[in-house]
Amino acid sequence: MIKRPSWQASVVRRLSVVVAGLSCLFGLVAPAQAAAPELSAYFSRPSVDGTLADPLPAKVLELIGLAAPDSTLRVATFVLEIKAVKDALVAAHDRRVDVRVVSEGSGHNALLDELAAAGVPVTLCDRGCNGPDTDISHHKFLVFSRLTDGRTDVVVQSSQNLAPDTGLHQNMLISSGDAALADGYRQVFDTLVSQVRTSWRAPFTSTGGKVTVWMEPRDTAYDQSTYGSADLVAAMIRDVGCPGAIRVVQSQFATDRPLVIAELKAKKQQGCDVQVLVAEGNQTVATAAELAKGGIVVHTFRPGGCHYPAGDTCAPDGIHSKIILVDGPSAAAGGARRSYVYTGSHNLNGGSLTASDDSFVRVDDPAVYAAYDADFTSLTDEVVKIVPRAFPGAGLQMTANGPDDQRAPRAAAMRSGYTAVAWEDDRDRASAEGTEVYARIYRDGQPVTGPVKVSMGGVGCATGWNHVQPSAGVDDAGNAYVAWAEDGDCRGEHNIAVRRLSPSGTLSATIWANDPQWSGDQTRPRIAVRGAGGFTVTWEDGPTRTVRAAGYASLTARSFAPLQVGTGDRPDVAVDGAGTATVVWQQAPDVYGRRISATGATVAPATRINTNAATQHLAPAVATTPGGDSVVAWSDNVAVTGGDVTTVWRVRTRGLTPALGQRFAEIPVAFGRYAPNTPSDGGKEYPPLCGKVDQTYRCAVQGSPSVAVDDTGRFVVGWTESDLWNAGRSHEVYARGFNADGTTTGRFPCERMNPNTAGDQSGTAVAADGRGFHLFYVEDFDANGYGDVVARTGFTNTGL
Question: What distance in Å separates the CA atoms of residue 236 and residue 267, rounded to the nearest whole number?
């Protein structure tokens, strides 16, 4: 269970709307003295560490304190776990307010017993008041008959429990001066207290009909007959015509609401804009995957994950709101456009529909809709930017999202703000042929070109060709240089092709880096480009299992012919300002590096990079400063003892001098808070990197590192990571920033970079310069096994 922070920790924003024609006011609004009905909307938007003040319970306390002597107050609550609220209710009772409370009784807090002992009538319903005794009484409403400021018939309907969990995003509606609405809630309260099994049917409405309230558990046969669906929520979604917009924010969304899932998918296919934000947790994983099959992108709301949380808790910054926003033609309204807010205590799971005591509330008011729309925009902004105030320029873009399978991105950036990325595009995964290489150029995080096909298809043959394993570099003028393993003549062997793409989209002729070595399979090329356009290419020679390299002063001027760098495979390369290349590679079981000048001379001989004794060190990546300092990242399986886990796969990094001496010792980029074979606390690290799953200790697997460095030596590492607690997610993508000495103070924190957690995320490619960094990765949005290349642009290597 996630630890709950102090309830004093979050921020509230308010919208007040006078229904009878008064204008909408944002911020603090003077209490309404007139009898005209008024609606107010409030939102809890917690900080990352949960330290901001003024939560929704403060508004509840304020209203309880205003309850007038000889008035009535009815409270229906799932729990009562805030002592200040209990004390306020007792104080109201002592000043002759007729206070009555109904609450879920199973496992209830002792504060309810204290409230009853003080003379307040408290009804406790075990496993629900009106349902089939299989769920809970989940209500969150209060009804005041009169306040000392003159307001009457005040109704509070919230997603917020009377509990210290305001580190979560919540919403609250407050109505005043509406007797019809207040009377409806009072009648519900009385029904709850009666504990008579009830399946609710028709709703009640506010004066003028702007607010409609359905209670639960539902009579699903009535809903089928009246609304055309046994699921009331599904019926409300079906009512929306397309093109229109449907946006869902839910703390719980389970697959046992198949009619809701089906209607959302149908609306997406009909052309509606459908967006879904769900809370972190196992329950939402299968739902997200199911919605993804219908083309709906589901964002899991814990922006950035939670490996090293601020404030030592993962509780802040989750979702507990229950909101659906619809905007479009309404069939029930004869095709007229309607903008509805649906909220209340209703979760999108089976229990809320047919078993628990819950409310489902619709508001038909433009200003209230605008407030909820702004709240949704704030939530999505946080999903994309993680911490908007810290990374206001961050973005989420599609680099390539065609019908083919896009994969294996590689990227590089230069000081002038240009970034180049290249990837594979496989039109038919069932065939070993037909893969092409594409590239795209960005500047300051914005695309300069569209996706451009760099490879040439088959040359002299119609079948059997492919182009794979691209790598990209960029010069100061924004020209992208793409190297890839090319089999265009269908021989079944690859050569190393290089081609230049200009910012205007013009492609150069192809050169062959492995010329004159045409025999044998040449694969896994990597290219590193200097500002003036010189470059070094390195690749793997299949027959000899050696790493080779060639250097160029320009695209048409070779500075050194192919030479053997070392024995091994999976090379990577980076160049400094003088053109000296740092080449790294796997040489089982270790990672090695060598420095080669722009003319091919050895500057630093082959040197082992890793210092630990793991049995495998894989997939090295390297970045180099203009002065020649290098950073290397790799993945290894260090042995551990003491339980079920015997090896732990972690990405590590080490800093090197121009002579390949040590600048800083190797360190894990993120080892996690909990040692292998020890219990973990999901409230302090989520998902944990090590912990117990199904009675067995396990650790997540990190791999596929990429690294980029700016001119000062500050660097960013990207990597993939399996989700220990949610196997259905496969892999996710993370990044973390470092100072030049390997420390992390003041740098980009360890964050999960993929807002979507359905499907698989893989293949990181990070590019950095003095302005910030961009991360590219492969994203399977629709969980069909086909990838798209995503760009996370505009982040800075700075702290929160």
Answer: 12
